[in-house]
Amino acid sequence: MKRIFDDWFTVEEIDTHTFAISEYGHWEKVHSFLLIGDKKAALIDTGLGIDHMKRITDQLTPLPITVITTHVHTDHIGSHQEYETILVHEAEEDWLINGIKGLTIERIRKDIARDITIPTPATFNADTYTPYQGKATGLLSDKDEIDLGNRILTIYHTPGHSPGHISIFDHKQNYLFTGDLLYTETPIYAFYPTTSPEDLVNSLERITTLKNVSKIFGSHNQLGIDPSIFLEVQEAVRFLKDKDLVRHGTGIHTFKNISFHF
């Protein structure tokens, strides 16, 4: 796998038309993904906003870019202001415009500044950091399709981590991009007031029924997960339901490769 190193971002070539743009120097180890079609490109999320992502995407494609927002948490919308076309699920349209109620700027700035392991750009100042707020150019619903030109993406509404969380299936490569619905190494979070453990496990059950998935790409930690993990997800969901653990306040539940914090 080819790697292109930048002072802040790590760009990894998944295939010749798909790139991961990662921020490994931050504790959240966030991944954004650039998918290039024949006519346009899709950028799944825009990272933390500690550095300017457009500087990277400009080097990877001259095509117009549509930003597809998996959900409106700060670490996924950091460079939204750099792009003209922004899509978000209809359930989080208000969050994108007005911010998430109850999430203070002090909390956001504390989280963005902590546990950074490499030098940040001179333009970054955690004390003045302000998350993106603005109006989306388009709203997404379940089963919407986006045609990049010989590359079709299907949107799946997968709430739980947030009300308007989506996952994206790429029919050309059979990649499934799961945002914060499914990843490994650290707990999948559904303990905030704006989360729903019940919706989360239902969304996980739904994606495990998708056919022909060749690779899963979550938005944090390990880059690229084998779809065999679906079996573990199904077993974990059954266990959590049988033990009446799918509700707020039951804590952290750890399995072989995945864990949940309710």
Give the key terms.
five-stranded mixed sheet; Metallo-beta-lactamase, Chain A; 5 helices; 26% strand
**Which radius of gyration do the C-alpha atoms yield?**
17 Å
Mean pLDDT: 96
Q: What structural class should be given to the helix and strand makeup?
A: alpha/beta
The CATH topology is given as Metallo-beta-lactamase, Chain A
Total domains: 1
Low-confidence stretches: none
Distance between the termini: 35 Å
Major sheet description: 8 strands, mixed
Helical element count?
5
Helix content bin: 10-25%
Neighbour order of strands in the largest sheet: 1-2-3-4-5-6-7-8
- The CATH architecture comes to 4-Layer Sandwich
Counting DSSP E segments of at least 2 residues, the number of strands comes to 16
CATH superfamily grouping: Ribonuclease Z/Hydroxyacylglutathione hydrolase-like
